[in-house]
Amino acid sequence: MDTRVKAIARVNDFVVKFANVNGSGSASANGLFARAILRMGVPVAARNIFPSNIQGLPTWYEVRVVEAGWRGRRGGVDLMVAMNPQTWERDVAEIEGGGYLFYDSTKPLPPSKFREDVVALGMPLTAICNATYSDPRQRQLFKNIIYLGALSALLGIDPAEIERLLAEQYKGKEALLDSNRQALSLGREHALASFECPIGLAIERRDAVGERIFIDGNSAAALGAVYGGATVAAWYPITPSSSLAESFAKWCRKFRTDSASGEARYAIVQAEDELASIGMVIGAAWNGARAFTATSGPGISLMQEFLGLAYFAEIPAVLFDVQRGSPSTGMPTRTQQADLLSCAYASHGDTKHPMLLPEDPRECFEFGALAFDLADRLQTPVFVMLDLDIGMQDWLCEPLAWDDTHSMDRGKVMTAADLDAGRDFGRYLDVDGDGIAYRTYPGTHASKGSFFTRGTTKDRYARYTEEGHAYVDNVQRLLRKFETAKALVPKPVVTSAAQPTNAGVIWFGSTGGAMAESLAELERQDIHLDRLRIRAFPFDDAIVEFVAAHEHVFVVEQNRDAQLKMLLVNECGIDPAKLTSVLHYDGTPITERFITKEIGEKARLYNVTPLAGGRRKAGGRAA
Amino acid sequence: MTYLAKPKIHHPALPRNALGFTRRDYEGAISTLCAGCGHDSISAAIIQAFYELDIPPHRVAKLSGIGCSSKTPTYFLGNSHGFNSVHGRMPSVLTGAALANRDLIYLGVSGDGDSASIGLGQFAHVLRRGVNMVYIVENNGVYGLTKGQFSATADKGSKSKRGAMNKDEPIDLVLLALALGATFVARAFSGDKSQLVPLLKAAIAHRGAAFIDVVSPCVAFNNHPGSTKSYDYVREHNEAVNRLDFMPVRAPITADYREGEVRDVVLHDGGTVRLRKVDADYDPSDKVAAMGYLESRRAAGEVVTGLLYVDTTSDDMHAALRTVQVPLNALKDVDLVPGSAALAGINASLR
Fold first, then answer.
1. Which chain B residues are Cβ-neighbours of A211 within 8 angstroms?
2. Does B99 contact A289 at a Cβ distance shorter than 8 Å?
3. What's B72's DSSP letter?
4. A538 preceded by cis ω (within 30°)?
5. DSSP states of B241-292
6. In B, which residues are within 8 Å of A275 by CB distance?
7. For position A617, what pLDDT does the model report?
8. A210 lies in some domain
9. What's the structural domain count of chain B?
10. What is the CATH number of the domain that holds A385?
11. CA–CA separation, A319 and A1 (whole Å)
């Protein structure tokens, strides 16, 4: 290494990236690495960067060790664990100056393969494996555990934490546990004997994780569906949403299996396509069950006709859209927030649908449960908008919480007793002025309360008509209902900058991971922004007020066409000139560095400075 | 005008079924289909079957897709909830409904365009899932509402009203249903109510996916010479393999037949369908033979009708999913929500 470049020395604040070959069994070892650091009380932000492939293509796992608790990507790599010859060049190029390269030195590599400003840490992993194991599969799998052992030495990770995790993983499979322990120790001893440990990057035990949990959004959203009382799930496999349906099955087996009979208090159908999935959801919800589907952009496209029916015939439905790189097949294993418009206005004709926009797995759980109350209350499809970054990555977040006094809000449903009491039943009759009419479940009463559900126009008593005034009466009521939705969906989170400012920033969803850190960095650079995180559509009036109270508002989102900005302009009548887009859409999760640079440059252009005299613009600090 | 309700005045002398309902209680709105439409005869048969089986009308859910046939649920069982869904997608909506409440009777009404063209995929999958339902295709070989285009069940070489020749091979929904695992498969002719009503009753008593293909001539667009779905053509080429009588579980079987002429099939609810054999060799429990027979008769230009296949040991989707006996839509918070204590355990496992 060039002596002019100083090797990076940092404690509990660096990025380790593993470059692996898909299907080589590395995910398990890499997950142990992240969780061992968490067990040492040091937060991590971990991300799998994987191809649409089962075996052979490059895959990466990035672990950002970050005592400060930031949840987004920082950008850059301080230690590259280069286990994939296919991607060697780009992996080596990605390392920060003064960073480290850990690699398999079994086969000598020419000096041209290395960088002078990077510390190379070679260990003959293949040779060690070949000398220790005879079975080729074992050689491959244990190579991962051996490098994990080496990293524990290089970075000062307590091996007892890894062993405890292994013991939990292989409970009841002691033979596997022993062989994993041996491999771990093999790698660790070799590293201790070969290198000065720890290197400049080190983990030191802290108490910075606390009660927080490490969970992916798909699994949390699925648990939300369990707590939300969903009994019917219909889905079609599509990355990155499949694990949501599969997690629902897993949670249901655990919590919804009758202990006496073994029978299921749920039904899950893997449908023949997304059209059938949403059709089943609509049929089940029409018949009084809580039902959902999980899909991604292409599935949303296929569901369009049915979504118009559910909107117009007013049938509850919950859709989890785990967004990926679009359009078309796009980047199936990369992340984007590019389905906002196709969900907000799904289907032909005049339609609008509520959307919930969780920022992390904890909100996936919360909104996942809430969506069922909203769908029943509003009798309409409700979208929970995840993305691959939230859905498929483990996030460190606050523990999941549940209020045991909560009971399902089934909305306006007329019972046989109501009908016998002589209550007037008009399926599309707005008796309360909130745009929401009463419905009856099929099979309720022998002679009252039946009606015909259809996608064609109808009058207030569900009778078929193509009279213009009846049509207008009906669709105007649907607008009133959308106004009612505004009051029911989660409010935006508004926070003021440390100093009064004429500028603000708006974002939603997974962008929050990098956003919080970027705001702190911008503040350090004396750029102060009031903040508003949108959590739902329809938009709350507070959003309009926030924009009105600032001269410049940045809108940060992860798509090319500024879909959130379009929605804001369209729905709130905001002057587009006030909104400056910060757009990230290459399929990787947005980073702190990207946001800071983009906003920093533009803010200087707009002369965003702290206001003199303590003038406060945005409405106070909120939770 | 479909929203005109028929006056609900019952003649005091109208006969009542065991539940005290008259036949009028099983009717719907006035049909807006063309006079003489085969579909209206099917609606009448449905009314008669449910009335005679003493089924409370509100315990039936009737679902359809889009098209003339799919309009008919408005014209029968007015006290049942109905759902006129999306073209070709009734099967998925019915599947969802059946998942939500296993206690209702599900009647899916579709047409040849709805099931054999746009909806062929969903037709296939609802049958292979064994959804407990009666699935009726009112098959006229033509798109009526859009004025006479061929559908996918139109026979090759048959002529449209405007004189065009159909060049494509027809889809035989009965053969498909057999191949896809339907456990009750029948074909009927809308012009023969004496065959259709007992078939409907038997299909209702069956547990699992019951499919009835009802050839139902379109008087407006497909009832001319050269059509193979006209009244005249079907009457001339109808080859019934059996005639049926349906006997509910409580009715004593008294009719007297010569040995070898009849075959009693006991259905899931204990009711019996008595088949009076027309073709002595036809065995409706032998699927493979049934498929061969149907293909050979089709090649000979015959329209084979009757109960073509039944598996009395079949079960349904709920059995496959092992769902609880209580309808899923009746489960409460206590049955469904694990609560905060369970959540604390989950949190602990994620650290």
1. 347, 351
2. yes
3. G
4. yes
5. SEEEEEE-TTS-------TTTEEEEE-TTS-EEEEEESSTT--TT-HHHHHH
6. 89, 92, 122
7. 45
8. no
9. 1
10. 3.40.50.970
11. 53
CB contact under 8 A, A280 and B122: no
| Torsions phi, psi for A423 (to 5 deg) | -65, 135
How far apart CA B49 and CA A461 sit, in angstroms, is 29
Please tell me whether residues A25 and A42 are part of one structural domain. yes
| CB–CB contact A279 B89 (8 Å) | yes
Residues A387 and A482 in one domain: no
* Alpha-carbon gap, residue B110 to B91, rounded angstroms: 9
Same domain, A189 and A225: no
Q: Long-range contacts for B264-272 (Cβ within 8 Å, ≥24 apart)?
A: B265/B202, B265/B307, B265/B310, B265/B312, B266/B312, B267/B202, B267/B205, B267/B206, B267/B207, B267/B310, B267/B312, B268/B205, B268/B206, B268/B207, B268/B312, B269/B205, B269/B207, B271/B201, B271/B202, B271/B205, B271/B246, B271/B247, B272/B246, B272/B247
B103 to A269: CB separation less than 8 angstroms, yes or no: no
Q: In what order do the strands lie in the sheet with B272-277?
A: B242-247, B272-277, B262-266
Residues A196 and A104 in one domain: yes
Is the confidence at residue A371, as pLDDT, over 90? yes
Render pLDDT for A200-240 as a digit per residue (tens, 0 to 9).
Answer: 999 999 999 999 999 999 999 999 999 999 999 999 999 99
Average pLDDT across chain B, whole number: 92
Nearest to B79 among A227, A403, A450 (CB): A450
Crossing angle for the helix pair A274-286 and B120-128, nearest 10 degrees? 60
Which residues of chain A have a CB within 8 Å of the CB of B340? 401-404
B329:A215 CB<8 A: no
Q: Say whether both A196 and A303 belong to one domain.
A: no
pLDDT digits (tens, 9 = 90+) for A373-403: 999 999 999 999 999 999 999 999 999 999 9
Confidence of residue B253 (pLDDT cuts 50, 70, 90): low
For residue B14, being part of any structural domain is answered with no
Supply the CATH number for residue B87's domain: 3.40.50.970
Positive or negative torsion for Cα A478, A479, A481, A486: positive
Work out the minimum CA distance from A178 to partner chain B, whole angstroms.
23
**Which residues span the domain enclosing B97?**
23-334
Total domains present in chain A: 4
Query: Within this chain, do residues A245 and A360 fall inside the same structural domain, yes or no?
Result: yes
Does one domain contain both A504 and A471? no
pLDDT at A618: 43
Q: What is the pLDDT of residue A425?
A: 97
* CA A458 to chain CA mean position, Å: 39
Q: Which tokens in the block code for residue A26? A: 């590395």
B63 bridge partner residues: B83, B108
**What domain range is A432 assigned to?**
416-488
Contact B61 A231 (CB under 8 A): no
